[in-house]
Amino acid sequence: MQVTLSLDHKSKTQLINNLKAVLNNAKAEAGRALYEFAKDVIMIESAVECPRKTFTLVNSGYVKEPEHYLDRVSVECGYGGPEDKMNPKTHKMASEYMIIVHEDLYPKEVVHPVGKSKFFEDPVRRNEQLLLEHLGSRVRMAMNIKPGG
Amino acid sequence: MANLLLDLANYTITQGIGISGEVFYNDVPDSPNNLITFLEYAGRSSPISDFGLRSVQPNIRNESSEAARIKAWALYNLFHPNDIEDSIIFLTATRWTKISCRNEPFKLKEDESHRTIYVFNMGVLTHKDS
Asked: Which end of chain A is more exposed for a tag (fewer CB within 10 A), N or C?
C-alpha cells in the first residue's frame, strides 16, 4: 500500500504566494502593534514620569510610523526628534537638554518639580515582557494561529 | 551584609581604577572634586528566583575633562572587557555578576564648579542583596 504526494508547479507557486501573503500580513500587523504599543503604553507612561516644568520636553514626544524592511519592522519613538520644541524660559530646544534631564540621577542644579530622570528608559524596560506578549498575540491573530498553536 | 553598589565601589578600588576616599556609592558628595560614584535606577527582580537585573550608572567627576574621560573609559573597560561578552565578574568572593554596558561613556555635563561629569549605564545581573 502506498501513496504518492506531489506538488505541481502551479500549486507550488500558489503555496509560495500564500505564504508570502501570510508573512506580509504578520509584518503589517506587527508594525501596527508596535506603533500602538509605543503610543499607548510607552509614551503615555513616559509622559507621566517626564519632568514638566514648562511642558516643553513632554510635548516633544513622538512616535514615527512603522518602517518595513526585508527582515524586520521597526517603530521609533522618543523625545526631541521631529516634534522638537523650544523651552519658553531658557530658549533652548528640548533636544539640547533632554539627555541631561534623562541621565542626571543626582541633579543639584536642575530641580524636577514633577517627574524624574530615566523617564523614558524606565517605561521601556518595565514593559519589555508586556510588549513581547502583545506582539505575539497580535501576530498570532494575524496568522490565524490559535493560542497554544 | 551584601550591597551591590558597595561591592562595585570596592572592586573599582581593588582593581586600581579608583582610590580609597574618592570612590562612593548612592551619593554624590561635593568634595572631593575628583571622584567615582555608583548610582542605581530602576531594575527588575525575578519573582521566582534569587536573581535580579539591576541598573547602575557609574558617575565619573573630575576637574579635568580629559581626566574624567580617561577614567570613565578605564571603568567601562573594567566592566566590559574586550571579546568577553558573557564574562562573569566576581566582585567579591561571594558576589558574582554578569555585567552588560548599555552604552559607552559620554560627557553628561559640567557642574557649577566647572567639574566634568562622564557617565555610562550598565545592566548588572546578580543575586539579591541581603
From this structure: N
CATH for B4-127, options being 3.30.2000.10, 3.90.25.10, 3.40.50.2020, 3.40.50.11420: 3.30.2000.10
- Chain B touched by A122 (CB under 8 Å): yes
3-state secondary structure of B23: strand
- Tally of residues, chain A: 149
Q: Which residue of A has its CA nearest to B108?
A: A100
CB contact under 8 A, B44 and A126: yes
Taking the C-alpha atoms of residue A29 and residue B84, their distance in angstroms, rounded to an integer, is: 38
Separation of alpha carbons B87 and B21, rounded Å: 29
pTM over 0.80: yes
Each of the 149 residues of chain A gets a pLDDT tens digit; together they read: 888 888 888 888 999 998 888 888 899 999 999 999 999 999 999 999 999 888 999 999 999 999 999 889 999 999 998 889 999 999 999 999 999 999 999 887 666 678 999 999 999 999 999 999 999 999 988 887 766 55
To the nearest 10°, report the CA torsion of B40, B42, B47, B50.
-10
Residue boundaries of the structural domains of chain B: 4-127
* SS3 at position A1: coil
Q: Is the ipTM of this complex over 0.90?
A: no
